[in-house]
Amino acid sequence: MLTEVEGQVLDWLARGYTHEQAARLLEMTPDGVQACERSIYEKLRVKSRGDAVREAMRWGWLVA
Fold it and tell me: Cα dist. 15→1, 19, 44, 63 in Å?
């Protein structure tokens, strides 16, 4: 359901990284990370980072 890049973005954001930190690690722009985050929210039908993390964990895409 999530692209590889969206999964990587979600992983770093779930660890508490900022958009800027995740962007540096993924060699993206902060705007690119934010765009991925919006896409993740739409796909998972959530409105917050915490909800996205919980939903991804429920589906087994992230582990605690």
Answer: 21, 12, 18, 11
Contact 52, 46 (CB under 8 A): yes
Read off the amino acid at residue 49: R
The type of residue at 64 is A
Q: In the numeric block, which tokens belong to residue 47?
A: 């409105």
What would the CATH number be for the domain defined by 4-58? 1.10.10.10
Contact yes or no for 54/63 (Cβ under 8 A): no
Pairwise pLDDT comparison (42 vs 1), residue with the higher score: 42
Angstrom distance (rounded) from CA 14 to CA 48: 11
Number of other residues whose CB lies within 10 A of the CB of residue 17? 17
pTM: 0.90
Domain ranges of the chain: 4-58
